[in-house]
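A common beginner's mistake is to predict each chain separately and then try to dock the pieces by hand. The better habit, illustrated here, is to supply every component at once so that their relative placement is modeled jointly.
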Amino acid sequence: MKSYCPICFRDITHHQNLFDWLKKDAWICGDCRLIFKDVNQVFHFHGCLIEVLYEQSEELDSLIMQYQEVGDIALRSLFFHDYVSYMQKHYKGYTLVWMPSGKVKERGLETVKEMLDEFSMKKQELLECISDDPLYMRLRNDCGLKKQKVLLVDVYFHKAKLQMAFDLLKPHVQCIHVVVLCGDMKVLHTMRLD
Amino acid sequence: MECKRCGNQDTKYFAYDPFHENWYCRKCIAFGRINVNEPIQSKRYQTCNIQCHYELEYPLTNAQLRAMREIRLYLDQGKDVLVYAACGAGKTELVMESIMRFINQGKKVGFAISRRQVVLEIKERMAKAFPMLHVIAVCEGYTKETDGDLIVCTMHQLYRYPNAFDLLIMDEVDAFPYRGNPMLEQIAMHACQGQKLFLTATPDDAMKEHIQKGDLALVELFQRPHGFPLIVPQVIHTLPLFQYLYIVHSLHWHKREGIQVLLFVPTIESAHRMRNVLRCFFQCAVFTSKTVDKEAVIADFHQKLYDVLICTTILERGITIRGVHIIIYQADHRVFQEASLIQIIGRVGRNIQMPSGKGIFLCTRVTKDIQDCISSLQKMNESVENHDTKELIV
Ligand SMILES: [Zn+2]
Ligand SMILES: [Zn+2]
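With all components supplied together, the output reads:
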């Protein structure tokens, strides 16, 4: 375990709360911990359940931007870190699928996919973008869908993108659950049913 | 491994990128990603071929003219220059001649300052002095346009200009966040491919060393344009409660005389506490780094809508408010270092109509910083007197 915070490089014990300190598995410092505000609520969208992990905020946005746009790939496994064991348990038997990006060529990596590298769940590359507009996506030819249960992961709650992915996947799978890293609470509460 | 941009060599800041098979520096990632061993790309900005000249509201004084001639002399010799000038001595006016000469030679000139607030003010002054030039400000909130005939920016924004400037003027090099920040210093050095001109009211030891070694030429200017000496503050030491009473009492007097007061406090919390007390008696506002509409608060204070502006050290620089007096509450607090104190007292007496003024330091004990501030000011005043007599003899 590193002794410094991978976000701000201060000592990992900096402003650390007692609970995390006692658990001895703190992986970011107490200040950076505040960037991740748990929401952990489930919403309904077009007959699917969407789980939102964190509240969208300026700080989290800029961290995501630092990873996706600036290319600070050292941050990749940090975003879902706290939820790895929870998701693996809760979504046992699901196939992990990520929302494709239209910028793979430019960035040199599929950013959402790489965020999930700590997960040992079964992963499958089902969707791909066919232009730099992320809404132009399609099923991959070689995807080999077998009516399985799919856990679709994205960074933001993006209605049009989810809708598109649902339309493509639904005829071929048993069910779809969605996990998004963060969402704007104002938008989400207008559609909250759970 | 070393980062060519920020000079970092500490391995904890380097990360390996398996997708591109290279290492990159995370210390300066805020300025965009740069890979290890990736050379800094020079970015040439357009140079203008306008012949420019500048216009001043007031003619330069003899002391300013002398300093200006010295700066020209050293720059012509290809040296970097440090202008050590008292607050309010007119540093900005001094460098206009250098700006003009470099631009007229088709060279690129940049003016970098630590604080965003001051960037906007200097930009206005430059635009007024050089009406024929397209002067732009580049700082947080103003980054759409990044090239102009003359670029005024924060130190942070210098990362946009690798090797861009033939003359880079850096103001407030003694201030946060530039002072003691090797990363910003590296970025600033990379922005300049030509000569550097530093401006400060409190040079640090590293600069003094460069002057001794001879790689930096020194030009001093302590006299203010109106010729009046610098204000030396009055130090009153008493307990915080009595400091409060003193403030209320003295604000009453100032209000009667129609003089506005800048009241400096050490922290944001103490600013709000102070406001809660003072608003029972006076029109007051708070100005801290958390203030949302900074420009509006300053404008209202200029309009004399407030008797007193309660502020933290954020307002210690660059702001010129005519005829204000200043009071520092808890001047013995550690945020008030010598450089800060000199800047704060420099807010007083900047106006020809009101060349004198009052500065009061309230404290429970007299710190070394307070003592050093007072002796520096006295030294500057003495050296002005010596200079004047010398000029008379010659
Ligand atoms: Zn941290
Ligand atoms: Zn670096």
